[in-house]
Amino acid sequence: MFHAVEIDGEAYWDGGYMGNPALFPLIYNCESADIVIVHINPLFRNEVPRSADDILNRINEISFNSSLMREMRAVSFVTGLVTQKRVLDGGLKHVLIHSISDDGLMGALTPTSKYNADWDFLIFLRDQGRKCADGWLAANFAKLGVESSVDAEKVYL
């Protein structure tokens, strides 16, 4: 459906199916212990998809979230090793995980909304994202650099 983008003769496809987001570069190539994940697809849904479009949409959501879940399992494992002082060489660090999501809003959008490039809709999404981020910051800003604001094992494992 979405063609590859070519850069310097190399074709690039949407990385969501393989490693979106790629967390390990954030862990090993920066000083911050905090990773803030902004969800654009709901991790969970209460309703069972019934129509073909809804089933395909849920397959897409699960596919895109699966790489995140895989990375979070690894992050949780390494964080456990560091916390339990089972790794002492300093090559691994304790990571603080934060998660911003609005599963209610994102889950209520129809599958066709992913193809909606209407300016008013994009402005609506931007405004809802800012509202969600403002709420998250009000509730969790003090935790940055101190502790995770999400129970990664409960949410991602």
Any overview of this molecule?
The chain is mostly helical. The chain has one domain (19-156). Helices cover 47% and strands 10% of the residues. The chain has six helices and four strands. It has helices spanning 16-19, 24-28, 52-83, 103-108, 119-140, 152-156, and strands at residues 5-7, 10-12, 34-38, 96-100. The strands form two sheets. It has a two-stranded antiparallel ribbon with strand order 1-2. Strands 3-4 form a two-stranded parallel sheet. The longest helix has 32 residues, at 52-83. The model has no long low-confidence stretch (mean pLDDT 85).
- Count of folded domains: 1
| Basic shape | globular
The DSSP helix count reads 6
Radius of gyration: 18 Å
Total count of strands: 4
Q: Which short descriptors sum up this protein?
A:
mainly alpha, two-stranded antiparallel sheet, two-stranded parallel ribbon, 47% helix
Please give a quick description of this structure:
With 157 residues, this protein is mainly α. It has one domain. It contains six helices and four strands.
Topology summary:
Elements: E1 5-7, E2 10-12, H1 16-19, H2 24-28, E3 34-38, H3 52-83, E4 96-100, H4 103-108, H5 119-140, H6 152-156
Parallel strand pairs: 3-4
Antiparallel strand pairs: 1-2
